[in-house]
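If it is no trouble, might I ask you for a protein's amino acid sequence along with its backbone structure tokens?
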Amino acid sequence: MQNLPSNKAAETALLAAVVLDCRRMDTVAAAGITPDHFAEGPFAALYDGLLRMFDSGRRFSIIEAWQLIEKERINLSEEELHKICDGYISRDLDDTIAILDDNKLRRDLIEQARRVVAEVPHCNDAEEYRQQLEEVVGGYGGTGREPDIAEVMAAINADMQAGLDGKSSGTIGLTTGFHSLDSIFDGGLRSGGVYYVAGEKGAGKTTLACNIVDRLLLRSVPVGGLTLEMGIRQFMEKMLGIRMGSNVTKIITGRQSPRANVIDSAVKELSGKLLHIASGVSDTAGLRAWARRAVGKHGVRLLFVDYVQRLKPAGMKSLEQYDRITAASEALTDLALELEVPILCVSALSREGRLRGSGQLDYDAYGTLILTKDHEMPAAPPDYIADVDCFIDKNRFGPCDITLPFRMHGATGRYEERDRYESTSD
């Protein structure tokens, strides 16, 4: 078969059809189509990878196909990538069939591609697929869109005029919900920046990040999250405890009985369409694909990652922690700049008191918060109240080397600001 003439259109159509719906692979594989049928080397490599996933029982979609291309470094041009993903799957499927019929070569592949592509639904699945394509690969090699400087200047001017007219919101970025943090960061979390909440084990870093997320949700700001440290249920129990001001574990075990309307209200609010959690994502390629969709489709204005040391760089073969975390940091920075949203990341702390793993984290950060909990407070009971010092280690838009005092309620996970000279030990 290697000596047969190439038919790039048919090969592209076949790949597009199985990426659109992996169940089509049943038909394709049953017909005996193998990677050797493909004259295009990169196409053969992509088909081989998809076939391996299918044979192992894994369902795949455009996102997994994209990750496969990056991970195995399949050498596709931007035009080829768009054609495979857009796949000649037009609103009028007769166009697709016509393209295949015009090519009389490689009849075995043509007929198979024609049969598979012809089964593609005319609207719903194909239209959703096109939207995914735009979100996932629209930025392949960069968006290619030149920013409208006049539009940017008009927005800056409008904000300045609002300030002069006394109509300013008081923040430039996205509010954290904590006045002291917004003031230090000179207006909240800036778009295009990555902010790290770090601390030693048990310092409450994930809890503070969740409090910021909760306060944004209360303001009807859509938030997207990736939780690599805990399962979705554990994460939502934490969010629910913060929202209710009650200990979810105690309620479940019958040791606490808040008013039913409090529970119903909190469950309803957190079940709405403002909080979006990534599922099945563990590397930077998957995060980028999911984040593009979350921002584009759901209007997400903050991305939350817990935590950065567990985020795997796509295609990274090195097992060295420094290389992995450096690549993850760079990927997060690029993503924040591309989507023009802030990213709030939880980070572990090294023994030296720095963000663990790579100095690139410190270098790329717009802001770094390092938490220290008062260890004299009882750690065992869940009802403890602890003083937490939040040290501003880096701040690209304001002062740093400043400590902000907070209080954390261990039972509920709620954070609150406290006076600089106030202490629970008084």
User: Anything to note?
Assistant: Residues 1-5, 87-110, 116-145 have pLDDT under 50 and may be disordered.
